[in-house]
Amino acid sequence: MGIRIMSIRTLLAVAALAASAALHAQPPAPVSNADDVKAITQVTEEFQAAIIARDAKRLSALVLNQHILFTSPATEAFVKKSRETMDVNDDGMGGGGYSAFASSIARSKVPVQEKFYNVKITQDGHMAWVVFDYEFLADNKVTNFGIESWNMVKRDGKWKIFSVVWSTRFPD
After folding, report:
1. What 3-state DSSP class applies to 107?
2. What is the CATH number of domain 31-166?
3. Which residues pair with 169 in a beta bridge?
4. Hey, which end of the chain has fewer CB within 10 Å, N or C?
5. Which of 54, 90, 97, 85 minimizes the C-alpha distance to 75?
6. SS3 category, 36
7. CB 148 within 8 A of CB 71
8. Is 139 left (phi over 0), alpha (psi -120 to 50) or beta?
9. In what order do the strands lie in the sheet with 112-124?
10. What residues are paired with 153 via a beta bridge?
11. Domain limits of the chain?
12. Pairing between strand 127-138 and 141-155?
């Protein structure tokens, strides 16, 4: 009888260890490779260069299409004030999107630049996420800054941006 109790205790301990290991197991890692990460990094560099060159056509080569999500959601305070004073349906998402951005870059009369810092790329097969801190400059002065996030997809062997969302903060 003493041997049988020991076996049950041992069996319970092994089962508890196995259950604990299963609970703490890591999910499979994203499917990533150095060539794709390098190509994605190149898109971030091309994006910045196209802004400096004020080249809307060059920017368009980096996005999936002109209708991508491209917005900086307004703060709760801004939406509340807008709803109280102008538009009860304001969702704070803005309306110009990518096309308005590209057009404003091309029409700018002063030098413009977007600087990226702390770029983090996560790739999983044909999808990628790029997150970074940014500063946007006009006439060599920071006009706004924040955190920016891109969703990217690989199409026809090339990485394309299909959404851009960023926070907007202003210098004091």
Report:
1. helix
2. 3.10.450.50
3. 145
4. C
5. 90
6. helix
7. no
8. left
9. 69-71, 158-166, 141-155, 127-138, 112-124
10. 127, 160
11. 31-166
12. antiparallel
- What confidence tier does 3 reach under pLDDT thresholds 50, 70, 90? low
- At residue 48, what is the residue type? Q
Locate 43 and state its tokens.
Answer: 């898109």
Using alpha carbons, select from 122, 134, 140 the residue that is nearest to residue 41.
122
Q: Which residue has the tokens 């319970």?
A: 12
Distance, CA of 35 to CA of 120 (rounded, Å): 16
Return the H-helix or E-strand segment holding 42: helix 34-53
Q: Which residue has the tokens 């400096």?
A: 52
The per-residue pLDDT for range 83-133, each reduced to its tens digit, is 999 999 999 988 789 999 999 999 999 999 999 999 999 999 999 999 999
Euclidean distance between CA atoms 45 and 57, whole angstroms: 15
Look-up of token digits 């509340």: 80
Tokens at 87, concatenated: 């538009």
Phi first, then psi: give them for residue 132, nearest 5 degrees: -160, 160
For residue 51, count other CB atoms closer than 10 A to its CB. 23
- pTM, full prediction: 0.82
